[in-house]
Amino acid sequence: MSNISEFSLTRIVSGIKKKDFTSEEVTRSFINNSKKSKKLNTYITECFDQAIQSAKNFDKKKDYKGLLSGVPIAVKDLFCTRNVKTTAGSKILHNFVPTYESTITSNLWSQGSFLLGKLNCDEFAMGSSNETSFFGNVINPFGQKLVPGGSSGGSASALAANLTPATIGTDTGGSIRQPASFTGTVGLKPTYGRCSRWGIVAFASSLDQAGPMTKNVKDCALLLQAMSGYDPKDSTSVDIKVDNYTSKLTEKIKGLKIGIPKEYRVDNMPNEIDNLWKKGVDYLKDAGATIKNISLPHTIYALPAYYIVAPAEASSNLARYDGVKYGHRAKGNNLVEMYENTRSEGFGDEVKRRILIGTYVLSSGYYDAYYLKAQKVRQLIKNDFNKAFTDVDAILTPSTPSSAFKIGDKKDDPVSMYLNDIFTVPVNLSGLPAISVPVGYDKNNLPLGLQLIGKAFDEQTILNLSLAIEKRANFNKKIKVWWN
Amino acid sequence: MTEKKFDYLINGDKSKWEVIIGLEVHAQVLSKSKLFSSSPTKFGAEPNTQVSLVDSAFPGMLPVINQFCIEQSIKTGLGLKAKVNLNSVFDRKNYFYPDLPQGYQISQYKNPIVGEGEVVLDMPYGTKKVGIERLHLEQDAGKSIHDIDPDNSYVDLNRSGVALMEIVSKPDLRSPEEVNVYVKKLRSIMRYLGTCDGNMQEGSLRADVNVSVRKVGDKKFGTRCEIKNVNSIRFMQLAIEYEARRQVKLLESDKKVNQETRLFDTKKNATRSMRSKEEAHDYRYFPDPDLLPLKLEQSLVDKLKKELPELPDEKKERFIKEHNLSPYEANILVSEKEISDYYEEVIKKCDKKLATNWITVELFALLNKKNLSISQSPVSARNLSKLIKMITSGKISGKIAKDVFVKMQVDDKDAEQIVEKEGLIQQSDPKELEKIITKVISNNKDKVEQYKSGKEKLFGFFVGQIMKASEGKANPQLVNEILRNKLK
Question: Cβ contacts (< 8 Å) between B286 and chain A: which residues?
C-alpha cells in the first residue's frame, strides 16, 4: 500500500468507503512521507499521533457520511485549530494555542476528515516565496533551491510531495494560485464571502479568502464543497446556497465564451508563458468554447492599488499583536518600550515593511491621496470585470509571470517580488473566484499554470473549464523524490 | 410668572465674556449583550468574566453587529427628532492601549447612523433649542487598573465592546445650568425610550465637554478646549466654570488659548492639560473591512417610529391640556418617565390638583429625605390615590392625611385601613361638632367678648381649640361655618 499517498483525494475517499484500505493505512502512508520530508520544511506543527488516533477511531466507527470520511489533512498554519499551536508563520505567535477552531477547518472535520499538521507559510501570509516565515524557507519539491511560491508555500509543497492528500490555503493576492502554479497543483480562490474567514489569522480582511489546494480539478471541487458555506459569525460571508460542485462537474463546456484580456500580455513575459496561454486557448476551443479578445483597461493599476489596500488593512489587523494578551511578549521598562520591543522582535522585515506602508497610507493628510484613491481604483477594476462578464463566461490568463524562482533571488527586491502577483491580484480586488490549473512545463522542467477567472459565485464554471483543460493538457507531475 | 433673563456671563477685568459649550455625551446602550459580540453587559461583575474571544481580540475573531443596539440607536435618534441615515459605516479608530485589545476601536466616523436633531430645554428664561450634530455608535474600551499592584497594571475587559452612543451637540450651550438641563433632558428622553439607563455612577453616561469663550457681541468662536470623560453633571458644571475663567484670564492678559485636550481634576476642581493639538493621536480612521456598510430599511425606521413611546415634550403638552397643569408643574411631573407614570396612576381615582400637590410636595420631600427614586417610593401610587380620595370626600382632613401619610411609609400600609383602625375619620356630623363648639365657646367667654368687639383674629384661636378638642378630626369647613354662626 505504499502508493496510497500518490492517490487523489477523490480516490482516497472512495477507497476508504470501499474498504480498499483503512483510514489508518492512509494516515500512516502520509505520515511516513511527511517524516522523511524534513528538507522541504513544510510542517510547522506535526499532529501525527493525534492523526493516527483519529484514524483508528474512524476505522472503529466507520461513519462514511462525510465528504471527506477518514481523510487526514494538513492545513496552512493560518487557520486556528483548537489546542494545536497556530503561528501564522510568525515569531509573535510562536507559542499561541487557540481554544477555538476556525469555521473552515471545523467544516472539514465535520465532513469526516482530521488534522495531520500545520503547514508553513509566509509570515501572516505576506510573501510570494515562503521566505518570510519565522520557521524558515519551504523548499519546492521541483528543486532543492527553488521557492514553492507563497504565501501558502508549505501547503503547495506538502501537496506536491504527497505529504497530504489535499490541503487548504488562503489567498489575499494570489497566495493559493501562485504556489499552485509553482508546484504543478490545482488551487482555487473562491468568491469573497463564499468561505468563512472566522478563525483565520487576518492579513487583509477585504481580500482574504480561504480555498482548496489539490492534485486535480475533481479533488478541488470536492474540497471546495466541503469547506464552503454561509457563516453568521463572519459578517462578510454571503448566504448563497453552495453548489454541488462534484456532481455538476463536467468537461462539457461547449458554447461557453472565454475572454482573453490583452492587458495581461505584459512586457518581458517569457515566450513559454505566452505559448502556454495559447495552448490553453486551443484546449478550450477544442472543447467547444468560443474565444473573445477583451480589455480590462485598469489592470496596470491593480498592483499599486493592492499594495495600498492590503498593507492598510494589515497595519490595523496586526495591531492586536502587542504582547498584552497572548503570543510573544518582550521585556520593557514601561508600556511603550514593551510594545516596541515586542513588535520589533516579534515581526519579520516584510511584515514590518507592510505595517509601515499601511500606517503611512492611512495617516491624516495622506489618506485621500493613497487609501481613498486606491479604493477608487479598486472600483474601476471591479467595473472592468463586470463589463467583461456581460460578454464572456470566464477569463483565461496565465497564473504567474514566471515559473518558480530560486531562493534568495527576489528576497531583497520587494518590488520584483510583488510583481509575481500581477495576474492574481486584480481578482482579489474584485472579489471574484479564480483557479490555477497546471498546464505544462518551461524549459527548466518547472511547472506552469493557467488561471481561469469566473463570475461571482460561479465557481462551477471555472471548475468545469479547468477540467476540460486538465483532460487535454495531460499534465504529468514530474517529481523525483530527492528529499528523503 | 415673570420670566428671568439669561445672565451667565463671565466678568473679566476688561470685558464681559460669553461661554460657548458643546457636549459629546457617551451613553451606554441599554442592551443585554455587547455591540459586536454576545457577551453580557451587566454592571459590577467580577473582572474579565464578561469577555468573549471577540472582545479580547483573539486572532481570527470577527465582529458581528448586534441588531438590537442598532434599533436602540435608531430609537434614540428618533427621540432627538433627528434624521436616521439609512446608510452608515463602521470605521476603525486606530491607537494602542492595553485596555483596547484590537488596537482599534470600532466607531462611526464619516457616516454616522443618526444625523442632525434637536433637544428642547425649559429654562427659567424660556425654551431653548439645542442642536444635535450627530449620534454614532461605537464600542467601549476596557478598564486599566493601576492601583492594585505597585509594579503592574491590570486590565478588566468587561466593558470592552459594550455599545455606546456618542451624542454630539452643536456648540449651542451657554452656561453650566444649560448643560445641567441639557444632560438631564437627554437622559430623560433616553430613559423614556429605554435606550440608556443614564446611570452616571455606573458610567452609563459620561461626557467630553468642549469649552470656549468670546467677548459679548463677538460673532466668531474662540479656540476651544476639550475636557475629557467627565462623569457627573456637577463635575461638568465645575469644569466649565473653571475652564471658562481660565480662558478669560489668558485672553485678558493677551495670551492665547491652545487647542488641547484637558482633564478635570475632581480633587482640585480644576482642569489640566492632557495633550496638545500637536500631540493629538492620528487615529488613521478607515472603514472596518470586517463589517459591511450598515444599510437600514426605511420600513424598520417607520416601524420603530410608530412604536415610539410618548416622550417628555409631548407628555408635557398633554399634561397641561388634559390635567390642567401649569407648565412648571408639568415639567416636574414629566422629568422622569417613572414620575409621570406614578402621577397618572394616582390621578386615575382622585383629584388631579390635589395629587399634583401631594406628589411634588409631600412625596418628593420624603424621597429626597430618604434619597430614593420614585420607583423605590415606600408609598405606592394606588395607596397615595386612596389617601387623596379620602381627603376630597371629606372622610379625613388634610392635616390628618399628613399623619396617615407618615404611617403609610411603613410597608406601604393601606391608607384606608390606617384611617379605619385608628379612628381618624373626620368628624362631619354638625350636631357632634356643635356640641364641641358650644363647649369651647362657653369655656372662653372672655375671648368671645373680645372677638365681638372687633378682635377678629381670635377666630383662628377658636378653630385651634375646636380641632384640639376633636383630636384633629373635626371637618374644618363645617367648623368654620358653625363657628361663624355661633359667634354672630
Answer: 312, 316, 362, 367, 371
